[in-house]
Design a protein that fits this description.
By secondary structure, the protein is of the alpha+beta class. The chain has two domains: 148 residues, Alpha-Beta Barrel (N-terminal domain of MutM-like DNA repair proteins), CATH 3.20.190.10; 125 residues, Helicase, Ruva Protein, domain 3 (Orthogonal Bundle), CATH 1.10.8. The strands form three sheets. Strands 2-3-4-8-9 form a five-stranded antiparallel beta sheet, with helices on one face. β3 and β4 form a beta hairpin. The longest helix is centred in the last third of the chain and has 20 residues.
């Protein structure tokens, strides 16, 4: 599933190719693409027509276009990428991609915006915008139009101006659960998924099964710093693309997978110490770590009851 860097790459593409254009027509094929829009695909398509695209915005792994319908308040077209959703910019006369579920045309007769989703876990929905509950007056480029209703419960991500590192470290410290579980909790800190959690923990030399409450607040702050740094590094390289599903709006893949130190590197030498990276099951997914640099916590033994 795409994480913050991959979604930010798409957002930047939308900002370049879609923002400032007015929608002339939209077509949504099938009910699943609009299953999060209660009124259905025909209603969604009708309501976006004639709307001006004011902005492309993001929080964590959540992405939306800010639309200005004529004579109405701005609305958010929330895009759920799911496991395989793609937003692509294509010439209107280009052959339709396999698994094409939505097309958006603009009144300038320029390239279409297309939503393609192989596994159909993603989709589109219109939602009202609300003031950001996590911040005061927005700074330059910071959610100036507000946050969509479905995203209000999502915490700021480490690359946002609204991100309060000290406050997040305090929240993490209060949780007596595995540190990696806390990093994946989008209500605590957003944007970090399995890939960048493993990479941040490797850089911090901390095992993900260590209880967050067992670390000091400065140590938790350093983990957050590493998470921010590794996501910035991934952004420079267009994100992490393991297959053709993770691409930017022009269809190009990122190449940060070549720089991964831990995630997906099971059996390969740790770039820091040479020990083989180990893979283990965690929360129905895989975790990757160096057993020398990231010493696993001891298993708590339950004392035998005396009979």
């Amino acid at each position: 599933m795409p994480e913050l860097p991959e979604v930010e790459v798409v957002r930047r593409g939308l900002a370049t190719h879609v923002v400032g254009r007015r929608i002339s027509h939209a077509v949504l094929t099938g009910a699943r693409v609009a299953r999060r829009h209660a009124a259905g695909p025909a209603d969604l398509a009708a309501r976006v027509e004639d709307a001006l695209v004011l902005d492309a915005d993001r929080r964590g792994k959540y992405l939306w276009l800010v639309l200005q319908p004529p004579g109405d308040d701005p609305q958010a077209l929330v895009v759920h990428l799911g496991m395989s959703g793609q937003l692509l910019v294509s010439g209107a006369g280009a052959a339709p991609q396999k698994h094409l579920h939505a097309t958006v045309d603009f009144d300038d007769a320029g390239p279409q915006l297309r939503f393609v989703d192989q596994r159909t876990f993603g989709g589109l929905a219109l939602a009202p915008l609300h003031p950001d509950p996590s911040a005061g007056a927005p700074g330059p480029g910071e959610h100036v139009h507000g946050i969509p209703e479905p995203v209000l419960h999502i915490a700021p991500d480490p690359l946002e101006q609204a991100f309060d590192r000290a406050a997040v470290a305090r929240r993490m410290k209060a949780k007596d659960v595995a540190l990696k579980r806390v990093l994946l909790d989008q209500s605590v800190v957003s944007g970090i998924g399995n890939i960048y959690a493993d990479e941040a923990l490797w850089r911090a030399q901390v095992h993900g099964r260590r209880p967050a409450s067992a670390l000091t607040k400065p140590a938790l702050g350093r983990v957050l710093d590493h998470a921010a740094d590794v996501m910035r590094d991934a952004l420079v390289q267009g994100g992490t693309s393991f297959d053709a599903l993770y691409v930017n709006v022009n269809g190009a893949s990122g190449y940060f997978d070549r720089s991964l130190a831990a995630y997906g590197q099971g059996g390969r030498p740790c770039p820091r110490c040479g020990t083989a990276i180990r893979r283990e099951e965690f929360m129905n997914r895989s975790s990757h770590f160096c057993p020398r640099c990231q010493v696993p916590p001891r298993v708590r033994r339950v004392p035998r009851q005396l009979v």
